[in-house]
Amino acid sequence: MVTTSFDELVINNSKDVFLDVYADWCGPCVAVAPTIAELADVFADNDDIVIAKLDCDVNELNRTYLPETSIPNMKLFPASNKSKPVKYEGDRSLPSFIDFVHANATKKFDLEAAKAKAVKVSAERAKKELKNVKPVHSTEEFNEHLKATDKLVIVDFFATWCPPCKFIAPVFADFSEEFSAVTFLKVNVDELEAVAQAQGISCMPTFKAYKNGAELGKVEGASAKDIKALITANI
Q1: Cα–Cα distance for residue pair 60/97, rounded to 1 Å
Q2: For residue 13, what are the domain limits?
Q3: Does a structural domain hold residue 1?
Q4: Which domain-ending residue is among 96, 127, 158?
Q5: Which of 9, 74, 151, 190 is deepest in the core (most CB within 10 A)?
């Protein structure tokens, strides 16, 4: 939920509220946004917990509760004491967010059930957001994709802990629909270390173009313009 009334949504109610203060131009905010959306899905059926977002560019911030100047700024406002919000300082993964909410919420919930739901939510969202991008889970699968066709193959070498990787992922997925004649792959460098090493991956994200098994070019970094140029130059 995105609000234009901080007091109404966060302060003047009897619910535990996890608030994400963000801006559309903020890279880390954009990177964590899909995870916050998953967090909201996990608690969608819990009437005692609200997951909310507040755009700091279009809303005046209450500095009594939100004195920080950096974003994203994530806090939990407990139903039992709204005057003492707890700032989130952990890693920006869904399990960590759920642990944080459980530790600080006034009304406790089944933690294991919430984490089990999170696994399903993440899988469903990831499948939907991939569009025509195909995840690769083995060296054999990677090699087969490169050699099985004379079509252009574009590979996104990424890491789940990498904010720029998360930032560019939706753009890469959009390209997979825009360029239907191209095969788009994703390789998790931590899952397939051997592939990443064999391909000389030294930074994330790295995008490489292949045709008939031969490398044609690469882009290091999350530049949509450069990635698109890599695609159009090699189709």
Answers
A1: 25
A2: 6-127
A3: no
A4: 127
A5: 74
Domain identity same for 81 and 160: no
| Residues with catalytic roles | 162, 165
Report the C-alpha gap between 48 and 41 in whole angstroms. Answer: 14
* Residue 37 and residue 58 in one domain: yes
Collapsing DSSP to helix, strand or coil, 207 comes out as: strand
Tell whether 108 is covered by a domain.
yes
The answer to whether the beta carbons of residues 174 and 205 sit under 8 Å apart is no
* Torsion 142-199-123-174 (CA) sign: negative
What pLDDT digit, counting tens, does each position of 175-201 carry?
999 999 999 999 999 999 999 999 999
Q: How many structural domains are present in the chain?
A: 2
Domain with residue 149: its CATH number is 3.40.30.10
Dist CA 184 CA 156 (whole Å): 8
Q: Beta partners for 20? A: 53, 74
Place of tokens 């889970």: 137
CB-based contact 129:176 (threshold 8 Å): no
Q: Does the pTM of the predicted model rise above 0.85? A: no
